[in-house]
Amino acid sequence: MFYLDVPVTPTLKIEADLEEFRVIIASKATQLFDIQVQGVKADVSQTPEKTLVNLILSDLRVFDPYEGARYRKVRRRKPKNKRLIK
């Protein structure tokens, strides 16, 4: 029988393409923030030496339900040059 002595390096790779997800942050008494993210493309790679995350968000919306808030709706879109954040 023949065995190779090759070190095995554990790695992880995840790719995701999501249409939309939503996160609501709240206490037991009240809702604090409503965050909606649309058009998410993500690529995560991990090795023992480093973790690399590439993330593209097409639309990010943050809503503060408090009626007295100065800015109840905050909306920001990705830059026109569509660069990845690393």
What topology emerges from the helices and strands here?
Elements: E1 12-26, E2 31-46, E3 51-63, E4 73-77
Antiparallel strand pairs: 1-2, 2-3, 3-4
Structure explained in plain terms:
This protein has 86 residues and is an all-beta fold. It has a domain at 12-66. The chain has no helices and 4 strands. The chain has a 4-stranded antiparallel β-sheet with strand order 1-2-3-4, with no helix packed on it. β1 (12-26) and β2 form a beta hairpin. The chain is elongated. The model has no long low-confidence stretch (mean pLDDT 77).
Q: What's the end-to-end separation, in Å?
A: 46 Å
Mean pLDDT: 77
User: How would you spell out the order of helices and strands?
Assistant: EEEE
What is the gyration radius calculated from CA atoms? 20 Å
Strand order of the largest sheet: 1-2-3-4
Q: Tell me how many strands there are.
A: 4
Helix content: under 10%
SS content category: mainly beta
Tell me the major beta sheet. Answer: 4 strands, antiparallel
Overall shape: elongated
Query: What is the tally of helical segments?
Result: 0
Write a concise keyword list for the protein shown above.
single chain; 86 residues; mainly beta; four-stranded antiparallel beta sheet; 4 strands; 0% helix; 57% strand
In short:
The chain is mostly beta strands. Helix content is 0%, strand content 57%. The radius of gyration is 20 Å and the shape is elongated.
